[in-house]
Here is the input.
Amino acid sequence: VQLQASGGGLVQPGGSLRLSCAASGSISRINDMRWYRQIPGIGRELVATITSGGTTTYADFVQGRFTISRDDAKNTGYLQMNSLKPEDTAKYYCFADGLYWRSDGLSGFGIWGQGTLVTVSS
Here is the structure.
C-alpha cells in the first residue's frame, strides 16, 4: 500500500490550494485519513482528521479555513485550504490506516505519504 500526496505549490496570502492523497494497493478499507504539517523548528502537527464515517476534526489554527474530505471509491483524501496565511507555509503530509489484502488474508496498515510543500508568500 502506498500514499501519494500532491497539490502543493506557491500561493499568495488569501489564496487557496487543494491537496490530494491517493492510496494505492490491494486496499480493503481505509479507516482514518489525516493531514499533518511540518514547519522547520516546530515539528509535525495534526491539521485535520476524517474518519471512515465522515466525522471531521480540525486544529484550531485551521478551523473555518480548511476542509478535509474523502472519496472512498477512489481511495483518495483531500484537504481544501482557503484563506491561506504565510504561517501555513509547511510541508503537508497525509496519513491513512486501514486494511489491505495479502496472499494470506487481511492485514492492517498505517502509512505516510511523501509530503507536499505549500508556500504562502506574496
Remarks:
- The mean pLDDT is 95.
- The radius of gyration is 15 Å.
